[in-house]
Design goal:
The chain is of the alpha+beta class and about 375 residues long. About 15% of the residues lie in helices and about 30% in strands. Strand 8 (about 145), helix 3 (about 155-165) and strand 9 form a beta-alpha-beta unit.
């Protein structure tokens, strides 16, 4: 890379293996955090990452970690920048004399190492931008030693390369960005960038699309069911756009296939329509006006029960379901209440369990639906 050089890392501990978050809040989860002052250089890094197609929230976000002193308790750390889809935290560390930044990380190395270790223990990797630092001032094995006190173009290039190395699971290395090395801004080489697994789903991927290579406008889309379906973001959720069939293509070829598919598209033509590829519901009532059937469909239509999940469950009050098969829920007299939509059944969705339980409000039934391979 022009303007940077690599150095041997030494004996710092490697981050722990990543973990998949279980359902509900847990260690490693991202939560909203209390607002705090930010520096101009931190804001410039955030703006640069947004322009490069990464999802950077406006407000501060925290990561739930194990408390270092009190076993079983949690501690929420607030990295400067959280890229939640990548499980990657970016810290902006001014290391020179206290000046315009108002503080310095020089002398706080032990504290920064502790933060890195706490984040690594719950599956997060940290990249630190050590501004105004000299060779050997790294905390983690993917850090950037930036001799300048500002976020230069050379530092921008080095940060993107460090993130890409992490995404591709390449061996970690520390990058040193000397002063006075300012390469020309590299032209964007692809309309489709940042294809990555959504770690809060089972088999859905995110990617960023630039309709025009030399313009900043970009849009985020999702690839559900291991790349089979294209989805667009819609407020808190997403909606089906088209079947693109990437589940049948080697993942190394996804970028080229998406680029070809999007070549004649506009953002307006890629607006989503329905929750599922076949419509708005996974289930169909046997009778349109059946109260129990419609209650079951409403219960199955929670915002978290989407194509992003290979398997999920929901509950209904009472004990109306007297029997079931893989494609239908039935009353005790065997009359059907609801069935799996035929297109959903073709994708592999089926009922796999129905249980009767009791809670403080009475009896209820729990229905599990899955498209996992039988």
């Amino acid at each position: 890379m022009s303007g940077t050089r690599d150095i041997a890392f030494g004996n710092l501990d490697r981050p722990a293996a990543r973990v998949n978050p279980p359902s509900g809040p847990s260690f490693g989860d991202v939560v909203s955090a209390t607002s705090r002052p930010t520096s101009k250089v931190e804001d410039s890094v955030k703006d640069f990452l947004r322009e490069s197609g990464f999802r950077v929230t406006k407000g501060p976000m925290g990561v739930v970690c194990h408390h270092p002193d009190e076993r079983g308790r949690s501690l929420t750390l607030t990295p400067d920048i959280v890229l939640r889809e990548l499980w990657l935290a970016i810290e902006v560390d001014p290391c020179g004399p206290v000046g315009s930044h108002g503080y310095s990380h020089a002398g706080a190395e032990e504290k920064d190492r502790t933060r890195n270790a706490l984040l690594a223990a719950v599956g997060w990797t940290v990249i630190r931008l050590r501004l105004g630092a000299t060779e050997g001032a790294q905390i983690g094995e993917r850090d950037l030693i930036i001799e300048s006190s500002g976020f230069t173009r050379a530092a921008q290039t080095a940060l993107l390369e460090a993130i890409e190395d992490y995404r591709q699971e390449r061996p970690p290395r520390v990058r040193v960005v000397p002063k006075g090395k300012t390469p020309a801004t590299a032209a964007r080489r692809s309309h489709v960038v940042n294809i990555g697994l959504d770690r809060y789903s089972d088999d859905t991927y995110w990617f960023t699309w630039y309709p025009v290579l030399d313009e900043a406008e970009n849009h985020k889309y999702r690839l559900a069911a291991d790349g089979r379906y294209l989805y667009a973001r819609t407020g808190r959720g997403s909606a089906f756009v088209a079947e693109v069939g990437l589940h049948q293509v080697d993942r190394a070829d996804w970028r080229a296939r998406l680029t070809d598919y999007l070549a004649d598209k506009t953002p307006a033509s890629l607006r989503g329509t329905t929750k599922w590829p076949w419509g708005d519901t996974l289930l169909i009532p046997a009778l349109p006006d059946d109260q129990v059937g419609n209650e079951i469909i409403r219960a199955s239509d929670h915002e978290k029960q989407t194509i992003d999940r290979i398997e999920f469950w929901f509950t209904i009050s009472g004990d109306s379901i007297g029997g079931w098969t893989s494609d239908a829920l039935r009353r005790a007299d065997e009359t059907p209440i609801v069935t799996i939509h035929p297109a959903a059944a073709a994708l592999g969705y089926r009922f796999v369990e129905v249980t009767l339980d009791r809670g403080h409000r009475g009896s209820y039934q729990r229905i599990t639906v899955s498209r996992a391979a039988a």
